[in-house]
Amino acid sequence: MKKKFAIPTLNNQLTAHFGHCEKFAIVDVEDNKVTNEEFVTPPVHQPGVYPKFLAEQGVHVIIAGGMGQTAQDLFAQNNIEVHMGVQAGSPSELVKQYLNNQLQTGQNLCDH
Question: Most buried of the four, 8, 21, 60, 108, by CB within 10 Å?
């Protein structure tokens, strides 16, 4: 199985608000093992821009603290899994938690 994950980051750690990230960590997984992690600078934030950008990167799964409804809807339209309410962690740690069915999710940390 090959999957590509995106995690919004600030200082290379998960940031609580998807739309205010400094970079996205793009983490590649093959056969349940992390094979690559890179940090990419997204385009200027406008509603709908990040979901399109990440879909173009070939992302399958988003791990985030929270995000607005427009982003959630656009990811759903592109068949991209979204896991929200994640509190903290490094991108590779969070992906490993996901792969081991240990990712702790909760309420959307975004209020709009």
Answer: 8
